[in-house]
Amino acid sequence: MESFIQMMLQRARERAEAGESPEGGPRVEEEPKYEKVLETLDLEGVAQLISQGKAKNVIVMAGAGISVAAGIPDFRTPGTGLYDNLQKYNLPEPTAVFDINFFRENPAPFYQLARELFPGQYRPTPTHHFIRLLHEKGVLRRCFSQNIDSLETLAGLPKDKLVAAHGNFDSATCIETGEQVPIEEVKEAVFSDEEESGWRSLRARYGGLVKPDITFFGERLPDRFYQLVGIDLPGLATNVEPDFPSCDLLIVMGTSLAVRPFSALVDMVPPTCPRILINREVPSGALYHPIRAMMGDTKGFRFDDEANNYRDVLHLANCDDGVAQLCELIGWGEALNALVEAGG
Question: Of 263, 258, 229, whose CA–CA distance to 243 is shortest?
Fold first, then answer.
C-alpha cells in the first residue's frame, strides 16, 4: 500500500512539473504563490509576530495533548492512550465507548469511564493558562477545543471564548426527550456504586437515557461550532460572524488532527495566516498530501516542503514546554508563571 501511495505521489509531482492536472489533462487551477509571512519559520518568528502586535485575532486549536500533564490520558498514543486501555470495559472496539448507538444499548461502560474523566479531579496545565493569557493580552479570537474536560474555563478562560467542539461535562440532556438534566444529578449517578442509583435511576426519572452533552460518534457537533467556523447548515442562525476569515495567527497544540471536521479547520484560515503546530510528534494526517488535496480533503501543513512553505511552523515539544518557550521569547514568561502559580 505504501509503495502504491509513493508511486501516485511521484506521478502527481511529474504531472505538476509538466503543467498538467493530476488526471493528465491541462491544469485547471494553479496554486497562487505567496511571500513568506514570518521573518523565520520557527518559534522565534511566531514570537516576533506577536511581540510586534501583528497577531490580534489568534485562534487556538487544542487537542487532548494539552491535558496530558494534568493526568488525563490522550486518546491515541500507543500504550498510554485512552483507547489502548479500555479492555476492562469489554468493548467490541475502543471507540465504542463514545458511540451513540452502543451507548443506547449499553450505557454502563461510558458511566464507568466518566468517573475517570469527570471535571473537578484535574487541574489546568500551563498550556491552559497560556490560552487564558492570550485572552488577557487581548489577542485571542477563540479557542476551539476537542477536549471534554473543561480545563480551559477552569483556568479562567471566559466561556464565550471557548468552542467545545466535542462538547463537555458542563451540561447534560435526556437523549430521548431532549430535556435538560442538571449536571449535578449526572455526577451523582456517575459516582454511584450501584447501577440502580446510577444511569438506571436517571433513565427512570427522565424517561430515557441521560448523558453529558459530549458529542459521540454518530452525533452532530454543537451548533455553535458550525456557526463560528462559518459552515451553513439548515436551521442555524446566520447572523453569527465566523472566526476564521479574520484569523491572523493559528496555534495548533496537542492534537493528532485525525478527526474531521475538526482537523479541516487548519485550512479555514486565510492563505496568508501564519500557522504553528506545537506537538510531541508530527501527526501523519497533518501534512500536505497532493492526493488528498486533489480529492478536496484537508490540505494540511507544509513543514517538509521548503520550496512552498511560506507560513507553517513546526515546534516539536510537549505543549507546556512549547508555550513556556514561546512566552519567554515574547516577554510573557513572568505573566504565564503568575497565572500558573495562582491556579495552583
Answer: 229
